[in-house]
Amino acid sequence: MISQRYPFIEKAIRQVFEKLEVKFKENNKFSCCPEPNGIKNYNQYLYTIAAGRNLALAEKDKNNIVTPCNGCFETLKSIRSELSIETPLRNKVNKDLSKIDLQFNSEIDVMHILEYFAKVIGLSTIKDAVIYPLYGLRVAVHYGCHFLRPSNKIQTDSPLDPHIFDELVEALGAKSITYDDKMLCCGGSFDRAGQKELGLQTMKRKLDRIKEARADVIAVCCPQCFQQFDFLQRELKKMDYEYDIPVLYYPELLAIALGIPKEHLGLDKHVVKSDKIFEIIEEKRKANIEIQKTFDLEFLKTCYSCGACNDDCPPAIMSDFDPKGFVGRILDGDIDGCIEDPNIWACLDCYLCYELCPSKVGLVDIFTKLRNLAAQRGLVTEGFKKEYKTFLNKGVVGRYSITQRKRNDLPVTPPDVKDVVDLMKSIEERECNTKKKLSSKNEDNKK
Questions:
Q1: Among 38, 73, 151, 423, which one has the highest count of C-beta atoms within 10 angstroms of its own C-beta?
Q2: Residue-wise pLDDT tens digits, 307-340
């Protein structure tokens, strides 16, 4: 399906392998895997023979198999499992394969290309190879069914709560978002079953959930799923359901992050045009430059994926304060929105988040920086503003009461803080003048 219907996906894979210096061999005697839904349900034994032949060909060359297709992966991995021990089925298959001078002894393994990227090449190697980080890009990952199931034969990841694809996306700097119905099938086989309408309904449901989650792009690892998401968006548009969410095969997304020019990838062959992905990436890149001036971007990403302190935060328990939500908004580039949100002042500086934080960092420093930025814009609650002005003018935050001290037989010695008051005022004046100069410079640059 990839080599004949979607060769641009193969093109991206070849370029990624070249970039990552992956050496591989091809075998032009391979047939279709065959596809697990159609052929198996018509003649299961011929399905097994065809898969056994492909496995035997690879074994004859003493090569493992890496496939970029969920269907091929499920077929070859499952049949390998079924033929891994000597049974009447294996004897029958090998008897028939001997007629074409082949035999399978289960001496090779089968890997999905995502598995190969994650477990052989490694997430750290991929991270190091990225030269065009996709920071802030919101990616809706769709695993597909045959990459994970049946788990007794596949054993790639959790069949119901997987993480491998999400980690590969986040290794590129992007954000793998959560969304409802994430594990719902794409409905690719409904059409062959004479239930085309159900296929459209399934895809509409998936796309509705992905749109609700504000995804910038959908990432897939199966050509059937690619076809469903890419082609059926056009079909749904004819029914006045508009999504316009680009669909990329993971190697295409990886190729972009590795700096392979988009002109070399065949992205223009997609039904849903992907030009806006690059606009979003550039917009996010500029936003991240601003984020990195104030925050540690890698820590923010780690913090957001953890969220260990979120449920125990006192203001979060007592109100709608959402500390993790603020971290997510910063990562999305919405620093201005965070600064203007009065809820940033709800953080109590209690440091419970620090004690719960596995990295012993916590969120207090993040909110301190947000509030400092807010204060520079004059966006301060009256309570904090009053306290600050009192401290700036008097060097103390409370009123010194001579009467109260005398009543308690305490010495009356008002603090001598004139030097620190003068120092703070001079620093504030200096910072104010610096800010004005920068603002004036920026205005001149705009002109």
A1: 73
A2: 888 889 999 999 999 999 999 899 877 889 999 9
Does the global pTM surpass 0.90? no
Distances (CA, A) of 317 to 311, 323, 362, 365, 393: 7, 11, 17, 20, 36
CA neighbor of 141 nearest in space, from 157, 153, 127:
157
pLDDT, residue 37, reads 77
Q: Which of 267, 258, 113 is nearest to 171 (CA)?
A: 258
Spans of the chain, pLDDT less than 70: 441-447
DSSP designation for 116: I
Q: Is residue 139 classed as helix, strand or coil in its secondary structure?
A: strand
Alpha carbon distance 16, 156 (integer Å)? 22
Supply the pLDDT for residue 36.
81
Which of 122, 101, 190, 116 has its CA nearest to residue 147?
Answer: 116
Query: Left (φ > 0), alpha (ψ -120 to 50) or beta: where does 409 sit?
Result: left
pLDDT at 442: 66
- Beta-carbon contacts of residue 386 (< 8 Å; ≥ 6 apart): none
CB contact at 8 A, 241 and 200: no
Answer for the pair 176, 170: CB distance below 8 angstroms, yes or no: yes
DSSP characters for 283-305?
HHHHHHHHHHHHS-HHHHHHHHH
Residue 179, both tokens:
């969304």
pLDDT recorded at residue 24: 96
Structure tokens at 35: 């596809």
- Determine the Cα–Cα distance for residues 428 and 441; give it in Å rounded to an integer: 20
- What pLDDT is attached to residue 345? 95
Residue 35: strand pairing partners: none
Spatial separation of the C-alpha atoms in residues 405 and 412, rounded to whole Å:
7
pLDDT at 445: 66
Q: How far apart are the first and last CA of the chain?
A: 54
Distance of alpha carbon 429 from the chain centroid: 44
- Give the Cα separation of 69 and 220 in Å (integer): 10
Residues 423, 418: Cα–Cα separation, whole Å: 8
Q: Can you say how many angstroms the Cα of residue 72 is from the centroid of all Cα atoms in its chain? A: 25
**Res 313: pLDDT:** 94
Q: What is the pLDDT of residue 185?
A: 95
